[in-house]
Amino acid sequence: MKLKLSNRYLTLPFAVSAILSGSANAVEVKSANAVLQGGSDSSVSWSAPATQPYRVYVRVPADSTATNALYHVYPNGLPAGNDCSGTDANNPCFEVPIDTTKHLGEWVQLTTDSDPATQWDFTQNPYVNGSVTVNASNLIATEKLATGSVLFENPRIGEAFQGGIIIAVSSNGQHGLIAANQDLPSKYTFYDAKQAVKISANFDAEGQKYSDWRVPNIHDLNVVYQHQDLVKATGTFYWSSTSVNKTLAWLEIFRYSPYPAYSGFLANDAFKTGALAVRPVRSF
Questions:
Q1: Span of 110-114, 201-205, 276-280 with lowest mean pLDDT
Q2: Structural domains in the chain, sorted by start
Q3: Helix (H, G, I), strand (E, B) or coil at 219
Q4: With contact defined as beta carbons under 8 Å apart, do 262 and 241 qualify?
Q5: Residue 18 and residue 37: Cα distance in Å, rounded?
Q6: Fewer beta carbons within 10 Å, N or C terminal of the chain?
Q7: Which DSSP category does 228 fall into?
Q8: Closest C-alpha to 86, from 155, 25, 156, 4
Q9: How far apart are CA 112 and CA 120, in angstroms?
C-alpha cells in the first residue's frame, strides 16, 4: 500500500548558477531532459552521488505541463515493487508533489513540511542505490512531465539549519556543528548553564524544535568564537562545558570585550560560581 505523506516543496528564490559552478558542496546529476507522457509507466531516476546527507533540488524544464508530479526520495534504495511507504524501516520513501506548471524553468527544493532544512541520509554503494525518482503513471493522459537535472547539496557553513546556524562541517559533509541563533537570555553560573540549555523557552522558535542543545566544550566554543560575526555573538565572557577541577572551568573572551587585547583568549581559571554568557550548540 502506498502512503502519501504531508510533504511540501520550496522554490529557490536565488540564482543557482553559483551552486553549479564547481562548488564542492553540491553535485548536479543530469538527465537527458526526458518528457514523460501522463498515464504511462515511464519514469526517470537520479542516483545520489555518495553516502552522505543531501538536500535535494529538482530542475523543472519550461515545457512541463504536469500539475501533480510525484517525486519520490528513496535514501536507502528502491524497495521490492517500488512502492512508496514512509513506514518501511529498510527502504523508506518520501513523496513530494509538485505542480510543475507553477515552477517552469525553476529549481525546486524537495522538502517535508515546507522545511528548507530537510535533508536525507543517502546510501550509495555497489549494493544499495539511494535515489530520487519520478513516474508519470498518476498523471492524466494529456499531461506531459518534463524532467531535468537534480541537485544534491551538502549543508554549508553560514546556513540556517536545524534550529540554528552551521558553523562547522566535516570533510565528508556528513556531520557538523550548529550554533543557536542567540545567546541564552541571561548570564549563568557554570552549573546553571548546563540546566538552562535544557529549557525550551530559552530558545527562539527554530531552536525550540530541538532538545539536544548543550553548552559547548572548549573546542566547540572556539569555533563559535571564530564565527562570532556570523552568529552575532556580542557577549564578553562565554562559558565552555570543560572543567579544570571542582572549582574552575574554561571560558573564552570574545572580540566584543572591553579588553580587545584579550579577544580569543582561552582561560582555564574561571570560577564556576561566576555568571557568564552562554551560546548553545548542537551537532548533526
A1: 110-114
A2: 7-153 (2.60.120), 160-283 (3.10.100)
A3: helix
A4: no
A5: 32
A6: N
A7: H
A8: 4
A9: 10
Which stretch of DSSP H or E encloses residue 248? strand 248-253
Contacts of 49 (CB under 8 A, 6+ apart): 27, 29, 124, 152
Cell of 72: 519520490
* Burial class for 43, CB neighbours closer than 10 Å (0-12, 13-18, 19+): middle
**What pTM, to 2 d.p., does this model score?**
0.66
Q: Using alpha carbons, select from 112, 101, 75 the residue that is nearest to residue 90.
A: 75
For the chain, the distance separating the N- and C-terminal CA atoms, rounded to the nearest angstrom, is 32
Among candidate residues 271, 274, 267, the one with its CA nearest the CA of residue 252: 267
| Closest of 265, 189, 258, 175 to residue 221, by C-alpha | 265
- Answer with the residue of higher pLDDT: 278 or 172: 278
175 contacts 282 by C-beta, under 8 angstroms = no
Structural contact between residues 179 and 158, judged by C-beta atoms closer than 8 angstroms: no
Number of helices and strands in the chain (H, E): 3, 19
Write out the three cell numbers for 48.
Answer: 545520489
- CA gap 212, 112 in Å, rounded: 21
Is residue 216 within 8 A of residue 281, CB to CB? The reply is yes
At 257 the pLDDT is: 66
Cell (9 digits) for 75:
535514501
For 240-256, the pLDDT digits (tens) are 999 999 999 999 999 86
What value, to the nearest 5°, has the Cα angle with vertex 163 and ends 211 and 60?
Answer: 130
Predicted confidence (pLDDT) per residue in 78-90, tens digit: 988 778 988 888 9
